[in-house]
Records
---
Amino acid sequence: MSDLQNKLENKKVLVALSGGVDSSVATALLKQQGYAVEAAYMHCWSKGPYCSTEKDQADAAKVAAYLGVSLHVFDFEAEYKKKVISYFFAETEKGRTPNPDVMCNQEIKFGLFLKKAKKLGFDYIATGHYARVKKDKNGYHLLTGLDSNKDQSYFLYRVGQEQLTYTLFPIGDLTKVQVRKKAIELGLPTANKPDSTGICFVGPAKVKEFLAQNIKYTHGEIVNTEGRVLGRHRGLPFYTIGQREGIGISASVPHYVASKKPKTNTLVIAPIGHVALFKRRFIVKDTKWVSGREPDCPFEAQVKLRYRALNARAAIKKINGRFEICLENSQRAITPGQSAVFYKKEDVLGGAVIDRTLR
């Protein structure tokens, strides 16, 4: 046995095993690399017709048994409801479009789960995220996953130095195709399981139905940019900036949601190509920097405005204690509540929540 294998065998890793193919392969790879591996399933949601907790936990148990690793089960349902779902409902009621997956990573996977692992004596945690960690003289860096189609760094910008010190991303250097191939080669029980969709831990929920059962909303007017009434909306929380489908009006050309006016409970829409659909400047709040240090302002970076969106060049400056983002080119559907994540090439600098757009 090599010195490296001896060294790794003394390092205990707790893998977040969700019952999906990505975390299954992550667990298998860590075993192959010589770590002392155990797994954990996080029980966070058990309500509603879309909940897949029972099946996912059973799949996690099958993978753990197949790989010969112990499986812990952590009940985080109360904390998940308080810190993630309550946030999701509250922000949506205010007319924003929050991203619960970002909050889930901060509060649950790299919050409660990491604390639990450290308390149990593990040296590292690992997840099946498509992202990478690199250490140099300046500390730990969060990097994009090598598979640009599956890169999940957008959801991880709130993970800082303390968390990255204890984090491994075993599949960050692989493509999804390679992960599937590896799962088949290893004969993993989840090799052909479809990717999960929907809200983190909740499952493939019909979001409008999910919200309707849990938040307050009031019907109101749909107007154009000149204020002319075009119809009625079912409640502002059920719409997001840039939305086309399901607005509920009939027009000769496609119309999109341009803005939401909570004070008057008004939904403003505009036809395709209209100037109201595009913005260049916006203010952010609740900013987090991966390095733990705020960059010297002003500075330039690439900004991702939503998951799977192409990065956009931007200048970032600080005015009266708040960061203002000025894009090189106007972008469509800049959405309050969503995250704006800042990149330097493959390096995630940090990110923030979009607060409001500017003219």
---
Amino acid sequence: MHVLKKKIINEILKKLELVPLIERGFIFYSSKQCIIPPIGELLFEEPPGEVHIKYGYVMGESYYVIKIASGFSNNEKNGIPNGQGMMLLFNQKNGLPLAILLDEALLTNVRTAIAGQICAARFSNEIEMIGILGTGLQARMQVKHLKEITKCRKLIVWGRSNKKMNLYRVDMEKLGFKVELARSPKKLASKANLIVTTTSSKKHLLNKNDIMKGTHITAIGSDTPEKRELGPGVIKNADLVIADSISQCNKRGEIACAKKDGYLKTDNIIELGQVLSGNHPGRENKMQITVADLTGVAVQDVQIATAVYDNYIRRKYEI
């Protein structure tokens, strides 16, 4: 069995065309070409933390994948990254274990950022200003990947810590962005027509009346039933809501929060794979408000782990 550590995984990622492989994963999912069971989850109170177990396979392909990813918010106090994890890859035909990808959550972070890039490319109007709620790793990675699809270099950020906002500004200015610090999420929403929410908040940050016409929101922070970044009415009032997985988003994420608020009609909700396959047009005019609710689907992990492993094996035997 092969053991791939973070360094070699990172080197391989630089050689891969990640956007099309993640897009294919969403299409596989929405066309029911894969088996993705419900998420396994462990929640901890002291110290606060969470572990997600995601797993599945694409029918007819070579492997199945089990991913274990954790987030412990107090880790940074001890000099340990908050996110940890690994992916286990098995032969789909006989169950033989083939590889352990000790990625330390790198693959999860990359596939999440790629999904954000895909949604911004598909659903945003011409981007005039990027708004980021949060100042952590994903807040940085989302912006880095947005550089691939837009010439916009105007960014506004909000976070709970002024110190972290200032550190974030320094990092983003190194990437070529002009960065403004927002006094509140509402102020951010009054200026940005692309908003990416990346916090672990359990209380909503944006209200329905904060959102400008024509805005696209990619919501990635709320990936458990307890988390929430969008307030009551945001999902209901959106012209189009895009779920990475409708069944999953009915139980966690912003759609699940909207259901708790009493919004049960949900006829404005589609799956991302439906748009990527051409079965739905997506945004239809510049005035629409669109929201992508991304809770993270295991097929993304299957796709990226498969690509990394296959590339590793090709390189190993070429040598």
